[in-house]
Amino acid sequence: MLIVQKYGGTSVGNTDRIKNVARRVASYHARGDQLVVVVSAMSGVTDSLIRMAKELMPLPSEREMDMLLATGEQTTIALTAIALHALGIPAVSMTGAQAGIVTDGVHTKAKIQNITPRQIKALLDAGNVVIVAGFQGQNSKGDITTLGRGGSDLTGIALAAALKADLCQIFTDVDGVFTADPRIVPSATKLDEISYDEMLELASSGSKVMQSRSVEFAKKFKVVFEVRSSLGDNPGTIVKEETANMEDVVIRGVSFDKNQAKVSLIGVPDKPGTAARIFKSLADASINVDMIVQNISHGSSAPSTDLSFTVDKAELLKATHVIGGLKQEIGFGDLLSDEAICKLSIVGVGMRSHSGAAAKMFEALAREGINIDMISTSEIKISVVIHVSKGEQATRAVHAAFLGPR
Ligand code: ADP
Ligand code: ASP
Ligand code: MG
């Protein structure tokens, strides 16, 4: 069997953990399987590299950030290969570029354009375990790019697709995908399976157990994968195409995202083209906007309105910079930003066929006296923005309302 395994930051967090990974890989190798092993940077390393760069400058060059952050994964590929050699197993480490991962040129969140795994295949055929640096690729100019935070998941899934692997396993520090983050909701339970769409909505609304772009990729290329623990042998969660009985459950999970920030523009002239101008500028700067709320306009001679939207905290400075630059042209009043918010979401394909989920969610929040600031919905998700200080309490209350005890 050809197996792609991805190990996250905690799973390679120190040399003992790396030895543990090597032992697991060795056991598959001993069965005669071919293995491609994708590893992340050791836990905390990417964050600490970002911190150092920001000590030098608040908005560092994105090209240089990619050069810097890619070093985290390069440390772990070499250490993992060495740990395998220590067990007598032939292993070769490769950077994203060496593995043939070609991306577009959008530094810090590049998209994979194509993968040519010729060199990986040759090394596998010669009997090696191939260790690939997660989270990185190379653009057409030959510069190193990275695939967005949590991007090693994408490397794992994309390689499984390109190599047509028989099995794709994402090893992490929890037993699988739970009904909520088990660190926030101790009574959350592990799911045996989940559909791509539900996993995608959970991931894009804060459940960092999988990077959302990696799930999108898996859905597109029909890569079935398992999320499981690197610290034990319990079976994990299978992520796959939706099956008929999945709609029986209304809510599959609850997610919580405190990495969001809100930007508000006060007194925006209410005329055609303004919103387009604002959001086009943000898109041109590759800033992802999540929720958008526009108030009813006030004033009759020169009507104006207030507009709020949310972005990733990491992009707040860039977003306020971009919007600040439009102040003269658009002629809005104040530009406010608020980092003290979080987003809470419920997700389930069952919402398509069962009504009342929104009411139940809002009631659960009302019982806790929690105020809702913004609301957005999709076919299988309802999200609210609330004050960050209430986030964990709200997550537990909403989880209890839909999925059982606190
Ligand atoms: P890795 O370093 O292996 O990529 P991450 O830290 O990125 O691991 O993701 C695993 C973490 O995701 C868990 O430790 C857990 O706290 C968090 N998490 C958030 N939501 C969920 C969920 N619904 N199910 C499981 N884990 C979750
Ligand atoms: N090291 C990168 C990060 O921390 C990629 C990953 O861990 O998946 O975001
Ligand atoms: Mg991760």
Report on the structure:
The radius of gyration is 23 Å and the shape is globular. The longest helix is centred in the first third of the chain and has 25 residues, at about 60-85. Strand 11 (about 225-230) and strand 12 (about 235-240) form a beta hairpin. The protein has helices at about 15-30, 45-55, 60-85, 120-125, 150-160, 195-205, 210-220, 275-285, 315-325, 325-330, 355-365, 390-405; strands at about 1-5, 35-40, 90-95, 100-105, 110-115, 130-135, 135-140, 145, 165-170, 195, 225-230, 235-240, 255, 260-270, 290-295, 305-310, 335-340, 340-345, 375-380, 380-385. The chain is α/β, with parallel strands linked by helices. The chain starts with a strand and ends with a helix. The protein has an 8-stranded mixed sheet with strand order 3-6-2-1-9-11-12-10, sandwiched between helices. A 4-stranded antiparallel sheet has the order 13-18-20-19, with helices on both faces. Strands 15-16-14-17 form a 4-stranded antiparallel sheet, covered by helices on one side. It has 12 helices and 20 strands. The protein has a domain at about 1-175: Carbamate kinase, CATH 3.40.1160. Bound molecules: adenosine-5'-diphosphate, aspartic acid and magnesium ion.
Radius of gyration: 23 Å
Q: Assess the beta-strand content as a share of residues.
A: 25-35%
Task: Report the sheet with the most strands, covering strand number, pairing sense and barrel closure.
Answer: 8 strands, mixed
Strand order of the largest sheet: 3-6-2-1-9-11-12-10
Q: Tell how many strands the DSSP assignment holds.
A: 20
On the 0-100 scale, what is the average pLDDT? 96
Query: In CATH terms, what is the fold-level topology of the domain at 2-173?
Result: Carbamate kinase
* Alpha-beta content class: alpha/beta
Give the overall silhouette. globular
* CATH structural class of the domain at 2-173: Alpha Beta
As a percent range, the share of helical residues equals 25-40%
**CATH architecture annotation of the domain at 2-173:** 3-Layer(aba) Sandwich
Tell me the CATH superfamily of the domain at 2-173. Answer: Acetylglutamate kinase-like
- Give the terminus-to-terminus CA distance: 42 Å
How many helices? The count is 12
List segments where confidence is low: pLDDT < 50 over at least 5 consecutive residues: none
